[in-house]
Amino acid sequence: MNLQSVKQRFGIIGRSQKLDQALDKALRVAGTEMTVLITGESGVGKEVFSRIIHSLSPRKHNNFIAVNTGAIPSGTINSELFGHKKGAFTGATTDRKGYFETVDGGTIFLDEIGEMPIDTQAFLLRILESGEYIPVGESKARKTDVRVIAATNVALEKNIQAGKFREDLYYRLNTINIQVPSLRERSEDIYMLFRKFAVDFAEKYRSEPIHLDEKARQILEHYTWPGNVRELKNVAEQVSVLAEDRFVDAQQLITIVPGLLDRNLPVLRNNFSNKNNNGGGMEEREILYQLLFDMKKDLNDLKGLVFELIKDNNLSVNDLTGIRSLMAGSNEEPERKHPIIQHHTERNISLEDIDITNNEFNPGNRKFEENRPIIIHSEHSSDNSFAETEDIEEVLSLMEMEKRFIKKALIKHHGKRKDAAEELGISERTLYRKIKEYELADKF
Ligand SMILES: Nc1ncnc2c1ncn2[C@@H]1O[C@H](COP(=O)(O)OP(=O)(O)O)[C@@H](O)[C@H]1O
Ligand SMILES: [Mg+2]
Q1: What is the CB-side half-sphere exposure of residue 291 using CA atoms within 13 A?
Q2: Of 16, 21, 48, which is best to mutate to test ligand 1, by the most ligand atoms within 8 angstroms of its C-beta?
Q3: In ligand 1, which atom is closest to the CA atom of 42?
Q4: Per residue in 266-308, pLDDT tens?
């Protein structure tokens, strides 16, 4: 089966190379008995991939089950997966079959495998190596023949280091690794996906599909999509239902989904805080990792933008000296910094900041075409001469940024540390230490 027909059959939208590579790998391993580890952020399509693999495997006529390991309480997970004997524990009034028994001959998809308790990991390893398992309260091992596809949206290597994930299980699962790209990494697919969902929802709600104007489309393409395809689908549904007119412009889009202009770093995003820890809050190291990750991404976006500008404005070699050293990451001071983008760390971007039609690019006063990347003006660049690109180091000093986040959260919560800590996703203890470190104590 070729890629195109698989996409059609399973409703997979996208043409980006990274998606194709992942899908191609899935097709190649589908027919084997190999264990597969699918990695990728939440909502990128990991479960869809697992279903494709099963449906194209010799097991396709047998059962498939998707189990969200992270959602099952650790006290019952062994019983759910491997079954239990009557009387094995209080409440076990009958024998119960586990998923590994009911799916015998088929495929089991273990989502959020990083959340699996360590004792369960040992049982899973045994199944993978010998096909044997022991139901809770039983003494004799049983046999099963189940293909395992696991998925994770966290780096398991980190869990291994923290002693939360077995290294031997990791290597056993990771024989084949399929990385499903985030939507950010394939922004060329965003609009196509949106259109597909718009058509689907039009059918569902018995209306005409919505259409976006160019600027609205660019807003979608420049948003960071932390929830990936799932989030895009939700946005398409909201807009399909709430838009008054079937032709949606940028203003309408933002009115319906204001979050699309939210470029705050993830520390302040709700979905980032307190997910995987027991009320202790996220440790500062994780915040810093996330900040670094986002900085890297911003830098890559910037590079991409510079490439586009070079390409589309036919800049001569002389013009490029500064840009080249920027690309090469050299520390050498560029001869002339190119005024490309103003970086906002303090406030959200509002619609007025996004100006696609009116941008004049300075060297030859060439106009941007409609489909050029969004350029963000700073409030201070009142005239048409752009302000200079800010030094990356200057803008993104980690400490400075962290301090700002903390200040912002404290102001928002009127100095209430408990609430501020919760919003920041750090423990109160960490916040307390940070306040001292940054000498913010007397300010709130
Ligand atoms: N390439 C794609 N084309 C169309 N829909 C997709 C694609 N990838 C994911 N989806 C849809 O996005 C949603 C989230 O996918 P899912 O597989 O549950 O993500 P994950 O398991 O990574 O969290 C589902 O509704 C799925 O059908
Ligand atoms: Mg999922």
Answers
A1: 21
A2: 48
A3: 23
A4: 433 333 333 343 333 444 555 566 667 677 777 877 877 777 7
Instruction: Quote the pTM value.
Output: 0.64
Q: State whether 120 and 190 are in the same domain.
A: no
Considering its fold, how many domains does the chain have in total? Answer: 2
Please report, rounded to a whole number, the percentage of residues in the chain having pLDDT higher than 70: 74
- For residue 257, give both structure tokens: 């989904």
Residue that terminates a domain, selected from 233, 261, 289: 261
Token pair 């009034």 in the structure block, residue: 93
Q: Per the structure block, which two tokens stand in for 363?
A: 């060297």
Q: Rounded CA gap, 70 and 111, in Å? A: 7
CATH of the domain at 91: 3.40.50.300
Residue 439 maps to a domain: no
- CA dist 126 and 129 (Å) reads 5
3-state secondary structure at position 385: coil
Pairing of strands 211-212, 247-248: parallel
Instruction: For residues 198 and 250, state if they share a domain.
Output: yes
Residues 155 and 73 in one domain: yes
Is the Cβ atom of 11 under 6 angstroms away from ligand 1? yes
Question: Is 229 part of a structural domain of the chain?
Answer: yes
pLDDT digits (tens, 9 = 90+) for 207-264: 999 999 999 999 999 999 999 999 999 999 999 999 999 999 999 999 999 999 876 4
Count each helix (H run) and each strand (E run) in the chain, helices first.
18, 11
**Residue where one domain finishes, among candidates 238, 261, 284:** 261
Ligand 1 centroid distance, CA of 48 (Å):
6
User: What distance in angstroms lies between residue 29's CA and the mean position of ligand 1's atoms?
Assistant: 20
Look at residues 13, 41, 7 and name the one whose alpha carbon lies nearest to residue 194. 13
- CATH number of the domain bearing residue 254: 1.10.8.60
Instruction: Determine whether 173 is exposed, middle or buried from the number of CB atoms within 10 Å of its CB (0-12, 13-18, 19+).
Output: buried
In this structure, are 188 and 204 located in the same domain?
yes
Inform me whether the pLDDT recorded for 87 exceeds 80. yes
The Cα–Cα gap between 304 and 165 comes to: 37
Is residue 328 situated within a structural domain? no
Residue 120 belongs to domain spanning: 3-179
Write out the two tokens for 253: 């889009």
Atom index in ligand 1 nearest the CA of residue 153 equals 22
